[in-house]
Design goal:
This protein has ten helices and eight strands. By secondary structure, it is an alpha/beta fold. The strands form two sheets. Strands 3-2-4-1-7-8 form a six-stranded mixed β-sheet, with helices on both faces. It has a two-stranded antiparallel sheet with strand order 5-6.
Length: 307
């Protein structure tokens, strides 16, 4: 009996993976304006229906922008879900796009200075929050030189392999979020290459520090300051703003100062959040407000999502 159940479960998993693979292929085949239009519809549905995404987005925007009117906060939360829908549908399109096509969608970003224009051995850290099109930013940057980025494997092997191969198609090397992945990042740093990092996901408590983000305590990664310690690498926080009607992307960049490598991990984490916040304020409707950024909370601080 157990053998029959195992076989049936395996069949269901294969059908699921193939169905998802077909969906990704179809999304990749759509013209980008049509792809974004479909994503916008999905985002609108997520807003109109009683979804957790809509609820979390409203909570986050209310927490982070108390100085704005309720109407403004509601519009930003709604638009953020529309943009998240576009981020979802555009990802397969971007994964299948050729390097020259990616370059045609965005101007040459200052952050992607060729390695030859930096001092020998100086690495370039491209820190891209979940703002605008972070998929485009990573794929596009990798067309300008060797780049290593952290990557969390997906539980579906077939889809995970498809995504890994697609993300690596423009030259990026993916490092798993493990000790081996950390060694790969350190090696890329020592070679003076580009390193891609996402700064606004809640890490494990042992690898993060609580620091203010829009005035709220947020568990923040400390890997970046650790990699920078004792070095003179270049660090740029950037995002690729998604332009209307599939017209492409526009970069916004902020250069980090010495504070980002402060030996005090709490001060370094606070500087990370300050820079991310400065970028988000430029385009709040394209930030991923549906992510529960303020979970967990420090001891004694109530969970804002339990309402």
């Amino acid at each position: 009996m157990s053998r029959v159940l195992h076989s049936r479960d395996g069949l269901v998993q294969r059908l699921r993976d193939r169905s998802l693979g077909l969906l990704l292929y179809l999304l990749a085949a759509l013209p980008l304006p049509l792809n974004h239009a479909l994503g916008a519809v999905l985002g609108w549905l997520a807003w109109l229906l009683p979804t957790r995404m809509a609820r979390v987005a409203r909570i986050n925007v209310d927490l982070c922008f108390p100085e704005h009117s309720p109407g403004w906060r509601r519009r930003v939360a709604r638009r953020s879900l529309v943009e998240m829908g576009k981020a979802l549908t555009e990802a397969p399109w971007l994964w299948r796009a050729r390097p020259d096509r990616l370059r045609s969608l965005g101007a040459y970003p200052a952050v992607c200075d060729p390695a030859g224009r930096r001092p020998e051995g100086q690495a370039l850290f491209l820190v891209a929050p979940h703002l605008g099109s972070w998929e485009f930013a990573g794929l596009h940057a990798a067309t300008y030189g060797p780049m290593t980025s952290l990557y969390s494997p997906l539980p579906m092997p077939a889809i995970d392999r498809w995504i890994r191969e697609a993300r690596a198609s423009t030259g990026a090397q993916l490092a798993p979020a493990t000790r081996e992945g950390l060694r790969r990042l350190q090696a890329a740093r020592d070679r003076g290459e580009m390193i891609g990092m996402l700064p606004d996901q809640s890490p494990r408590r042992a690898t993060g520090e609580f620091a203010p983000f829009f005035g709220q305590p947020a568990l923040t990664m400390t890997l970046l300051p650790r990699l920078l310690r004792g070095r003179d690498d270049r660090v740029t926080f950037a995002f690729a703003e998604r332009l209307p009607r599939g017209r492409g992307f526009r970069y916004h960049e902020l250069a980090a100062g010495a504070e980002i490598a402060d030996p005090d991990p709490r001060r370094a984490a606070a500087e990370i959040n300050r820079l991310v916040e400065a970028l988000v304020r430029q385009c709040p409707e394209q930030y991923n407000w549906a992510y529960r950024r303020f979970r967990p909370q420090p001891p004694g601080v109530p969970d804002p999502y339990r309402r």
